[in-house]
Structure formats: structure tokens, C-alpha cells
Specification:
The protein is α/β, with parallel strands linked by helices. Helix content is 38%, strand content 19%.
């Protein structure tokens, strides 16, 4: 195979090495515009896991690379006048130039031809004269630009500014500094990559950058500023420059990574923020994946498609983690009020790839300190002592007079099994079993405040006395046979009403028996959906009265908490999102005006609900669609609700419009909850792909939410919370009828 590589960085060199190692007959030529000893930056970082992948791919280059590493296990965080150390992380750093030297020598020894200080021939010429063209020409890829109509690239320049510096200070660990001065907060990411050389990345918000005058600074002026700011930390060592200009990090994605016989890899195809140190890792693992695909598939088009199909999930998972990580550093100011230990835990788990359990295995002493602080805070907030060594998820939490035993919530899950709004034994078993299963709070499915407010004919309701009586059976069971508390989610479906049950055709309008729909604006949910009537003032008064009646019935049924559903495109949510509120009266426009009717309903519900009982409100923090709600508006909405007496905000997302494109992943909605919690200064619940007890511990310990709401996990296992306790060696009290199982040890094989 005749292969051309555009770019002689780690990606181009390593792919050449791998292909020549497979078959010396392959002809591999690399064009690199720079000299062999001319590179941007100072050091690169690999995790121990990445090194294992490289060892299997090419033991010779792996041996040379590891011989040049500065290895460390610790992360050190300087914040709030304290130095917090965490161990067991397993990273290694080395000079970027040394890495290039090793790969250049290895490639040339295998017969790879490298043209330094030479621009590559025209892409069309290379594609015509070679079997495969590899574009490894970096973040500013000319190939990506030329093939943009075929690859559909997306480049998102992030708001923070950073500059890449070096220093002779020999950091003993991966080190973070957080230093405020009159201009703002500066963050430093620093690590040693050889005996007397370290990388020193200085980062700040654009506002701080401009206020400090660094937007006008030369390289030397930047160094002088940083040396003054971190004089004590540098201890007389100087900072060094190497094309050290201030930059905005570009997040690069491409809908396709290849066109005909040209394929992108490394930063040309995708980038991951330097805060998780994955750029070089991704590039070199791309090489391994492309090599494997070429070996497995004789036809090149099949190979390139397989490379992309097999590799993309791993890359996108890392990019999601990198996105959460970079957003943590973009918004570090919001974490400054955290205790230094909780701040450190938040930083260490910021990408959501390191969990409470994972960190406990690496550094049990640090996690014990975190858990003790969480327990102390819970004891003060909820009242009463918390058992020593209590996992964060099993600490209590208070909402007004309601004290929850733990932080696990059974999410509202529509069952579509009621008859004219009246629930039956299915709901008793469904909700009762999950209460016995150990959750601190169980919330009923979306329960509608009127017959015309239902999604489907099978939806639960609270608009007749018999509805309250049916729910009373469930509430009494939960209170009698468990320590769980139970809440009801009150809602009106709005424009998403009068549809069939999901198993009969999701979101499809009823063939017969439909009822008229109302919404903020006369916009149908689907083109074939019924067009709702834009609500009049009389409609608003009637709906408010329906919510009040449902609230009174909820109190008669004995519920501990009411949740007002103002998310997912239903009636109240249709006022909040700009996608569904096109009104030009006092109920449309700014977020304050769009919140006017939901606040009217909330005020009426709060007045009708006993003062000692809490109210939650569910909000959609993101519509996943162009023109959708901005998270800053959600923070404003949460603050408005809190000021009127909302006790906790249940932060969800999506389902506003049918063409939404959610970005799924582990805990993908938790960052929304965290921002609302910290910026609106209100307790939050978080939802969205919370799959493990370690996730719950991580979220609570880092202060990303106060309660964790799980749906599918509880459908799969009604006793999820009890099993989570057992796996952590934490004892929950069993009902008398089940106490014989308290020492049972299950076997799975």
C-alpha cells in the first residue's frame, strides 16, 4: 500500500510506524512543514491505561517513550489557602520534542520517508497517486478545510483564554493553582515532563484576560505578569515561552472523518481539552484503530468506514468528558464558595470519568475526608447525627419539615394504566415496591390536574375525590411499610395531550375521543398533531384553579411533597421555552415575562399546600434545539421560583420539540443541575443516565445536586437502593417481613 501522511506530529509518525511494522513493503511518506526540532508546546501527558495500549501496538517505541517519562501518582490542588493532595492517579509526562525525536527515529529506522520543511503536494495530487492519504495536520487542518463540504466540520472556540508556558520548576505532581487578584481568577495547570522542565498553562476568563491587559500583551509581558502573580509558587524559577500566545481552545468535530481515500486523524478530526490531557492519546489511539481497520478490511472504503464506526464512540465519550471538564474550568468562579476539600473533590471528578468509588480505590484517605465533610453538612442541614463512614448517598436531607433518609429518588414514570384518571393495584405495587426498595423519596408519575390535561386516556389524575382515595391507598402503604417519603407530580399536558398510549403509537393523536388542547401559543407538537388554542386570561384562571384543586386533593391523599411539572414541553413549560412561547403580550418575551403564568400557578399551589410541606418544581434546562432556552434563563427561573417558596428544583432537559437532538452520555444532565444549584443558590435534584451508586455518591459529594433521580434503574431493580447499600457494606433497616434476607449473599454464577 502506498500511503501519504500530511503532518509529521505524533499521529502521522505513529501511523507510519504501525503500518511499516505490519508490512515493510508498505510505502509510507510523511510531509512536515516544520524542522524536526521545531514544535509548539512543552510537554505531553499519558495515563497508565494509554501506555498499555501503546505497549501492545509497538513495544519498541513504547519502551523508548516510557524510558523518557516523568511519572507521578499525585494531583495537588492549591485553593483557599490549603494544599490538597490526592494520590493514585497514574500519569506520565514527557517532552513533546522528545516524543517526536523517538517517533521520528523509529519511523526512519523502519523505512518511513519523512520530508521536513516541505509543504505536502496538493491534496488532489496525493489522493490520485497514493492508495491512502492520512491527514494528520493538526487543529488548523488545511485538509479538513478543503474537504469541508464532505466532512461537515464543526469548530467551537471556547470562551476562556489560555497560554502555554514552560518553566524550570520541577513540579512533583500534577498541580493546579487558583489565584485571585484585582483582575479576576487565574487557573494554572502544571506538570513536570522531564528532570528540570515543566509545562505551565495559565488560564482565565476573557473578562479577566482583558481587565489584566493581557489581550494586548506580548509574550514577554505575559511572562512578566505570570511571574509576578505566581512568584511564591515558582520560588525563583523563570517561565519560558514557545509561541506562547493567548488562545481560545477550539473543540473540533466532524460529521465524517473520511472522503474517498483521504482520512483525518488526531486533532484534524477531533480535539479534547488539555484539562484531561487526551489530545496526543486520541491521536495515537486513532493510529491503532486505523491500522486494525485496514488490516481487517481488504477494501479501503470498508476499512475507513469501519475505522470511523468503531472509533467514533470512544472519541465522542472522551469529548463529552472533555467538554464537562473544560466547562468546569470555564466556570471555576462558581465553585469558589466550596470548602477546599469539596472543591478538590469537584475538580477531581469534574469530567465524570473519575467517580467516588474509583477515587476511593485510588486514595481512600482523601475520600474518607470528603465523606466526613458531607456527613457533617448533612447533620447540620437535616438535624441529628449521621453514622460514621456513611456513604454520601445515604446521608439525610431536609426540605422544610420533611427529612429524607437518603438522596435517592424514584423518578416520576408514566405508566399509562389509569382508568379515567383513577389509579389501581398496578400503581400500588409499582410505587410501593420501590418505597420498600429503600429510596428516600418516591414521586408518582405525571398526575394531571384535569381530564383535558392528560397526555393519554391512561394517565393518572387528581381532579376527582375518587382519585385522591385511590392515591391514599398508595400513600398509606408507603408510610406504613417503609421509611420512604412520597410526592406527587402535578401537571397539565398542554399541546402534548390527547395522544395514544406509547405502545399504541408514541405522540400520535387519538383516532377518536380527543379533547381540545391549550398551550402558550397555537403551535402543534407534530405536524399531524391537533393545533392547540393559545391560552386566554380565562383559560389561565381555569387552569390555575385546576392546579389548586389537585393540590388540595394531594393533601387529602397524604402526600409529603408536591412537584409542579414545568418541563418537557407540557403546558407550564410551553410558556417558559422560547420555542413554544411566541406570545406578544405580558406572558411572552423575556424570561421574566415567560415565567409570569408558571409563577401565578406556583403561587396558588404554594398557598393551597400546607406551609410545613415542601414543593419541588421540574424545569427543562436545555431544549437541545436551535433557539431553545438558555441555561442562564433557567437559572433566573429557578431563582424566581425559590424566592416565591420553591424548596428544590428538579432539573431535567429536553422533550420540548420533537426534532431535538440531545447529546447523551453518562450523567449528561448533571451539569445543568450543578449550575442551577450554585448560581441560583437553590437545592436541586438531577436526572439523566445515573446508572450506579458511585454516580450518586459522586454527585452528592461534589455538590452537583442534593438528590439524584433515577428512572430506568428503578424499573430494572425496585430494590436498587437496598442493593447499593449492601454493595457498599452499609446496612439499611429491612421491613420485619424481609429481615431474614438481611444477611443473604447473592450468587450470580
Amino acid at each position: 500500500m502506498k500511503i501519504a501522511c500530511i503532518g509529521g506530529g505524533p499521529a502521522g509518525l505513529y501511523f507510519g510506524i504501525l503500518m511499516k511494522r505490519v508490512d515493510p513493503a508498505h510505502q509510507v511518506t510523511i510531509w512536515e512543514r516544520n524542522r524536526p526540532d521545531d514544535t509548539f508546546g512543552f510537554g505531553v501527558v499519558f495515563s497508565d491505561a494509554t501506555l498499555g495500549n501503546l505497549a501492545a501496538a509497538d513495544p519498541e517505541s513504547h519502551a523508548a517513550i516510557t524510558a523518557s517519562f516523568a511519572h507521578w501518582n499525585d494531583i495537588v490542588i492549591h485553593f483557599g489557602g490549603r494544599v490538597q493532595r490526592s494520590t493514585g492517579h497514574g500519569f506520565a509526562g514527557m517532552s513533546r520534542q522528545k516524543l517526536l525525536d523517538i517517533l521520528q527515529a523509529r519511523a526512519q529506522a523502519l523505512g518511513v520517508v519523512i520530508h521536513f520543511e516541505r509543504e505536502a503536494p496538493a491534496l488532489a495530487e496525493l489522493a490520485a497517486s497514493h492508495d491512502l492519504v492520512v491527514a494528520a495536520d493538526g487543529v488548523n487542518s488545511a485538509v479538513r478545510s478543503e474537504l469541508a463540504p464532505h466532512l461537515t466540520p464543526e469548530v467551537d472556540f471556547r470562551p476562556n483564554r489560555f497560554v502555554w508556558l514552560g518553566t524550570t520548576f520541577p513540579f512533583e505532581a500534577f498541580t493546579f493553582y487558583f489565584r485571585e487578584n484585582e483582575h479576576g481568577l487565574f487557573r494554572v495547570h502544571a506538570y513536570r515532563y522531564q528532570e528540570s522542565a515543566s509545562t505551565f498553562i495559565l488560564e482565565c476568563t476573557e473578562a479577566t484576560w482583558q481587565k489584566a491587559g493581557l489581550d494586548q500583551a506580548t509574550e514577554d509581558e505575559t511572562i512578566a505578569y505570570a511571574e509576578r502573580l505566581f512568584a511564591a509558587e515558582l520560588a525563583g524559577h523563570r517561565l519560558q515561552k514557545n509561541r506562547s500566545i493567548w488562545r481560545a481552545f477550539p473543540t473540533v468535530k466532524n460529521r465524517s472523518w473520511h472522503h474517498q481515500n483521504v482520512v483525518l486523524m488526531g486533532d484534524a478530526a477531533h480535539t479534547a481539552h488539555f484539562s484531561i490531557g487526551s489530545g496526543t492519546k486520541l491521536a495515537m489511539e486513532d493510529c491503532i484503530a486505523l491500522r486494525d481497520a485496514v488490516l481487517t478490511h481488504p477494501k479501503l472504503e470498508d476499512a475507513l468506514q469501519a475505522y470511523e464506526t468503531d472509533r467514533r464512540p470512544s472519541v465522542e465519550a472522551i469529548q463529552r468528558s472533555a467538554q464537562v471538564s473544560l466547562e468546569w474550568f470555564e466556570n471555576t468562579e462558581r465553585y469558589l464558595k466550596l470548602d477546599p476539600v469539596r472543591f478538590a473533590f469537584s475538580l477531581l471528578t469534574r469530567s465524570l470519568r473519575v467517580t467516588h468509588d474509583n477515587l476511593a480505590r485510588r486514595d481512600p484517605e482523601f475520600v474518607r475526608e470528603v465523606d466526613a465533610l458531607v456527613a457533617q453538612d448533612a447533620s447540620r442541614q437535616a438535624g441529628g447525627a449521621v453514622r460514621p463512614r456513611t456513604p454520601p448517598m445515604f446521608t439525610p436531607f431536609r426540605l422544610r419539615d420533611l427529612v429524607l433518609d437518603n438522596r435517592v429518588v424514584v423518578s416520576p414514570m408514566c405508566q399509562y394504566s389509569a382508568t379515567d384518571g383513577t389509579i389501581d393495584d398496578w400503581h400500588l405495587v409499582h410505587l410501593g415496591s420501590r418505597a420498600v426498595g429503600g429510596a428516600g423519596l418516591v414521586i408518582t408519575e405525571m398526575t394531571d390536574v384535569s381530564a383535558d390535561g392528560r397526555i393519554t386516556p391512561g394517565c393518572a389524575g387528581l381532579y376527582r375525590p375518587e382519585h385522591a382515595a385511590a392515591f391514599r391507598r398508595v400513600v398509606d402503604f408507603v408510610h406504613r411499610h417503609s421509611t420512604a417519603k412520597i410526592g406527587v407530580q402535578l401537571a397539565h399536558a398542554g399541546r402534548k395531550g390527547a395522544t395514544r398510549r406509547p405502545w399504541e403509537g408514541p405522540d400520535q393523536p387519538l383516532a377518536s375521543g380527543a379533547w381540545p388542547l391549550i398551550a402558550a401559543s397555537a403551535l402543534p407538537y407534530l405536524p399531524a398533531s391537533q393545533v392547540p388554542r393559545a391560552m386566554t386570561r380565562a383559560d389561565m384562571s381555569a387552569v390555575t384553579a385546576d392546579f389548586v384543586r389537585a393540590t388540595e386533593l394531594a393533601n387529602e391523599a397524604g402526600f409529603d411533597l408536591v412537584e409542579l411539572h414545568a418541563a418537557h414541553g407540557y403546558l407550564l413549560a410551553s410558556f417558559i421555552s422560547p420555542l413554544t412561547n411566541h406570545r406578544d403580550d405580558e406572558y411572552g418575551g423575556s424570561i421574566e415575562r415567560r415565567m409570569r403564568f408558571p409563577l401565578e400557578v406556583f403561587d396558588a399551589v404554594r398557598q393551597a399546600w400546607p406551609a410545613h410541606k415542601p414543593i419541588s418544581v421540574r424545569l427543562s434546562a436545555c431544549d437541545w434545539a436551535p433557539g431553545g432556552i438558555h441555561l442562564s434563563d433557567v437559572v433566573t427561573a429557578a431563582a424566581l421560583l425559590s424566592s416565591r417558596g420553591a424548596d428544590i428544583i428538579d432539573v431535567s432537559a429536553g422533550q420540548t420539540v420533537p426534532d431535538a437532538k440531545p447529546v447523551y452520555g453518562r450523567l449528561f444532565q448533571t451539569p445543568f443541575s450543578e449550575r442551577v444549584r450554585l448560581e441560583a443558590n437553590v437545592p436541586t435534584m438531577t436526572v439523566g443516565n445515573i446508572a450506579s451508586w458511585s454516580d450518586v455518591n459522586s454527585i452528592v459529594a461534589a455538590g452537583r445536586a442534593d438528590l439524584c433521580v433515577l428512572a430506568r434503574a428503578h424499573l430494572y431493580d425496585p430494590y436498587w437502593t437496598r442493593h447499593a447499600a449492601s454493595e457498599q457494606g452499609y446496612e439499611l433497616e429491612w421491613p420485619d417481613q424481609y429481615k431474614s434476607v438481611s444477611r443473604y449473599v447473592p450468587r450470580f454464577r
